[in-house]
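Query structure, 119 tokens:
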């Protein structure tokens, strides 16, 4: 297979979508993205604030398909509430109390790819 043939079928990606999603939604998002022929890498990650596991999806694609990929994420990832223990200040009879935070459906970064190569 020549380089031209390969690129006709599988265009060289010029955008990288990095999407941090809740692990509960990761299977649906991954299935819907790959079902549309988008290439995805799934990474286990941890949120710095909640210190709980989440999932980071890397999608290398073209500018022409970015909106399609974002639509998939909008359709498969939903907002949920989580609770985090905060130390009581000053310490009293209670050492900590729970606050509720809203964890978004997905935190998405879309980046330009300056160089792409498969070795
Ligand atoms: P976490 O850092 O564990 O944050 C979970 C949720 O806690 C956040 O949801 C937000 O609602 C809340 N939160 C985060 N930092 C806070 C703070 N300093 N004070 C009060 N509440 C706070 P999302 O904003 O939807 O973020 C979900 C996850 O996406 C984050 O998990 C983190 O893993 C990632 N993330 C969000 N923004 C990011 C950014 N600018 N850079 C890198 N990762 C980011």
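Result returned for the query:
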């Amino acid at each position: 297979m020549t380089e031209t043939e390969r690129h006709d079928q599988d265009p060289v990606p010029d955008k990288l979508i990095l999407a941090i999603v809740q692990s509960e939604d990761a299977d649906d998002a991954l299935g819907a993205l790959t079902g549309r022929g988008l290439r995805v890498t799934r990474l286990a990650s941890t949120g710095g604030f909640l210190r709980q596991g989440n999932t980071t999806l890397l999608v290398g694609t073209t500018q022409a398909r970015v909106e399609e990929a974002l639509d998939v994420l909008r359709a498969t990832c939903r907002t949920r509430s989580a609770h985090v223990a905060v130390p009581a200040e000053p310490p009293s009879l209670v050492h900590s109390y729970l606050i509720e935070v809203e964890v978004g459906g997905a935190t998405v970064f879309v980046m330009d790819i300056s160089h792409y190569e498969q070795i």
